[in-house]
Amino acid sequence: MPPRTIRSVALTALAVAISATAANAQKQYDPGASDTEIKIGNIMPYSGPASAYGTIGRAQAAYFNKINAEGGINGRKINFVTYDDAYSPPKAVEQARKLVESDEVLLVFQPLGTPSNTAIQKYMNAKKVPQLFVATGATKWGDPQNFPWTMGWQPNYQSEGRIYAAYILKNYPNGKIAALWQNDDAGRDQMKGLRDGLGDKANMIIADKSYEVADPTNDSQVVALKDSGADIFVTWAAPKGAAQAIRKVGELGWKPVYFLGNVSTSVATVLRPAGLENSKGIISTAYIKDPTDPTWKDDPGIKAWAVFMDKYYPEGDKTNNNNVYGYATAQTMVQVLKQCGDNLTRENVMKQAASLKDFSSDVLLPGIKINTSPNDFFPIEQMQLMRFNGESWELFGDIIAGEVGH
User: Fold this and answer.
1) Interval 377-390: pLDDT, tens
2) What was the pLDDT predicted at 401?
3) Domain carrying residue 276
4) Residue 406 has pLDDT above 50, yes or no
5) Taking a C-beta distance cutoff of 8 angstroms, is the pair 217, 244 a contact?
6) Which residues, at least 6 apart from 318, have a Cβ–Cβ distance to it below 8 Å?
7) Beta-bridge mates of residue 40
8) Quick check: 63 and 42 in contact, CB under 8 A?
9) Are residues 255 and 390 in the same domain?
């Protein structure tokens, strides 16, 4: 081989080696990330009193399968490791430790439930592992100063309570309110939002009763609240408790102006079991498109979601808006991972999650955008009121921000 050829081959090899080294130098990985894989942890109540939410985890797994089938994220496949905590805080702690210490996930995405997330929050922050886009609207998930590794996703419960308060003050200024709430941080948060929103008219709340999520029934609370003489009824409850309350109100022949917390608006898991006739006229809030609402039947976003469901989650219920929620949260997670590029460190995951600018899933309501910053860990702060007509939800009014001071 002539000397010049040898030299050019050597230089080419050197150039390849340098560029490979440079490429490797730019790639940064924490546990759970590699050239081929991004390992994401998740905790869901697949069993127990809140098992109606389990479909969210299944929809998310299906969406990540779709992403993998399309080539992954920057060439890496998502390995989604999801465990059941039965909506039990001690079990959630056990599963979080397993994900972080045994499975060595890069992050824990969308763990569900206020009690479960409360139980793991200090651990996740001590370990500096992202507890990202938690599936609960408690206000405490937006506290970057004290918990920089924890971030919410959906509108917080206090915002929702304030939105109902504003509507009540405008439309029923002389009403008497009774409230049923789940005895945990979620229920307390929503009651705080309602009271704060009513301001000096908070004495409109003439009765309130709490119930435990594991209680077999909340019938006695509903009977007592009806007997209070209230003509407005507000419930903050997980799907099972919400369906029981709607059914009992119907059995009692009570006809209050009925407000239902957003987390329990699924036609499939709440309103149908409670009785569609009993559910007619109920008011709630929305920030994602409801697949049962005829408004969206030709909507490109809902059409794309339906195609996704048929292909990747055919056994999933297309009347269950929890499956739309799972899809939208997974899309948000994918956006963050795309923004991370080749810097798949836990620190960069949180940095990118806190740098979302006007991101919108195609199943969010028009006009609702996801925005975060290092000081704003509340991705979605807007909602729209809706009313159930006996068959589907109908949106009304404008997009409202019920922002709580950060």
Assistant:
1) 999 989 999 999 99
2) 81
3) 157-286+386-401
4) no
5) yes
6) 291, 306, 309
7) 80, 107
8) no
9) yes
